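Chain A, query sequence.
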Amino acid sequence: MTHASTPMPVPYPAVPGPVLRSPIGLAHAVTVLLAVVIVADLLIIAASLNMRSLLDDVAAGGVVDFDGGEASRADQAMAGAAVLYGAALLATAVVFVIWFYRVRHNAEVFAPEIQRRTPGWAIACWFIPIANLWIPRGIAADVLRAGDRWPHSAAPRHRGLLNAWWGAWVWATVFDRYASRTYDDAQDVDAIHDAAGLVMAGAGFDILAAVLAILFVRRLTAAQHAKALAGPTPPTH
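Chain A, predicted structure.
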């Protein structure tokens, strides 16, 4: 296993300019953190199911005092799962951006001529409101192409996986914000019941996005590692 902070042991010639750095260690870290996000999402689903079950009992007359301890515990479970999710998501985002910059940096060695944005954009793009819904995907597509053995040929491998992950991530992000806002604004029993269902659905979408992100991170990392070990691509005639 190649350490994340060390240069790749590759047969590329030593020339001035960017140096290949292995993304493998960072990819492992991102995978583990995304798994923690998935666990947090599962806890959110469990808490939402518990809340909806309690509210079903309220609607059926089985729970008279909704403001009692049972309701408080259900609400605390929702809040606790949300806090765990937020912490896991923040840690994942930090490490993911570092990994993303690493693979973009490597793309500058593999095929700098097909990169439409400078390496710094691999970090800056995530902090631009609205634009961060499409600029990172364009950078990822360029990096994906650079990782191909023949980057100037047809469409790169795994483009479908990239599109699936990005679409799922954008949808999960937008839907989660809507669901969270709806739950926070809910006041009566029916509104809270329905909002908890939205929160549960949002967690399901987030799990899908996280699984696709794991697959994309692993495949792009493996492609870069394989290309680095294979050495420079011979020129075509």
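The chain has a mean pLDDT of 87. The radius of gyration is 22 Å.
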